[in-house]
Amino acid sequence: MAPIGAGSVFSVAPWHDYPVTDFPDTTWLTIPDLTEMLGLKVSQVRRLIEDRALLARRIDGVWKVPSAFIVDGEPMSELRGTIIVLGDSGFTDDEAMDWLLGVDDSLGTSPIAALHAGRKAEVRRVAQALG
To answer: Is the pTM here over 0.70, yes or no?
Structure first.
């Protein structure tokens, strides 16, 4: 899969559609939800995705971002670096999303929950070891 920055992610759909049931505890935000929540224009939200500050996935034909990626009305600051580490470890964006939302045995929780708990260094160490 091409990196997010390679062309418009919204005109070329490099991601697969995944049913919401793959992550039943995840609340998904649409681009319009994010524009309202973040106080940004659609183009600015798209830029956050292209710049890897957020990951998005098509669900039922609509681009969505997990609400866990937003903290205090902004993209989680620890997320971008973690996404970059995962990319450097050979993860596609889909694989990175799956790993962030799924439970990692070595962390004892999902990586996104560990990031919320302030365990950024541990999460990134585990991500690097997966490469």
So the answer is: yes
